[in-house]
Amino acid sequence: MDDKIYMVVLVLVLLGGFYLVSVSQSPAPTSPVYVNIQNGSSVYMEHNTVSTNGEALRYVEPDKMTVSFSVETEDRSATDAQDENAEKINDITTALKAMGIKEEDIKTTYYYVNVKRESHYICENDSDREDCYWTYINVGYQVQHTVSVDVYEVDEGGDVVDTIVDEGGEVDYISLGLKKETQMEIKKDLLAEAAENAKDKAEAIAEGLGTHVTNALYISESYDYYPSYYRSYDYGVGYAEAAYDSMETSISTGTIEVTASVSATFEIQ
């Protein structure tokens, strides 16, 4: 009986000693460290990694212009209003195609038929008391058809605007942007530049700490591209009136800002 008790105590002592040895050999937890860079970027370090952000910027001349225009017609008959609207739209699209605009680059973006009403104040005096009320009378129909036109010869944009106005359309806005192929090419270049910028920052920090960068453990990217919009009411005068006064519209394209950024976490040793 005493031998059994002795063996149990011995086992407990051995287990307790093994636990103490294991705990004493466990590495102490490392607290995250944040490092701020003078240029405003921030770096997060935890254990043997460093995280940085890289940026790239480019100003590009637009190679695509989108013109949005509308045709509005009114008539007492809904059918007549629609027919008149369709005739004007057909005249405009025919003229645009004659300029070389492809049919697939002319798209309807909005079509609306609205009942036009007038309000009347009615007073009936058949009795001793006055009985007045407001009522609404249908006086016709209004049709609005909005179309967008993609123009890839940007220097011909002014001629497109003039053609639309001459054929009875009203230009709502002009957008200057980039073709999809151009966007993809610029995005690829900017992301590569931003990634290199992020790596350069990480290597500079690692060198300052007496270490060096090895592998990229995590990477994320973003890309921003903002076309320029010019609306007729921004200038307090419609494009139709402006085109009529000058007889020739000139479009100044300017440049478009395109940016890309890359966030990356690198292993350092």
How large is the count of helical segments?
A: 5
Helix content: 25-40%
Percentage beta strand = 35-45%
CATH H-level superfamily of the largest domain: Protein of unknown function (DUF541), domain 1
Helices and strands, in order, run as HEEEEHEEHEHEEHE
Number of strands: 10
Whole-angstrom Rg: 36 Å
- CA distance, first residue to last residue: 59 Å
- CATH topology assignment of the largest domain: Translation Initiation Factor IF3
For the largest beta sheet, what order do the strands appear in spatially? Answer: 1-2-3-10-8
- Give the name of the CATH architecture of the largest domain: 2-Layer Sandwich
The total tally of domains equals 2
Written description of the protein model:
It is a single chain. The chain is an alpha+beta fold and 269 residues long. The protein has two domains: 125 residues, 2-Layer Sandwich (Translation Initiation Factor IF3), CATH 3.30.110; 109 residues, 2-Layer Sandwich (Alpha-Beta Plaits). The protein is built from five helices and ten strands; from the N terminus they run H-E-E-E-E-H-E-E-H-E-H-E-E-H-E. The strands form two sheets. Strands 1-2-3-10-8 form a five-stranded antiparallel beta sheet. It has a five-stranded antiparallel beta sheet with strand order 5-6-4-7-9, covered by helices on one side. Strand 1 and strand 2 form a beta hairpin. Helix 3 crosses helix 5.
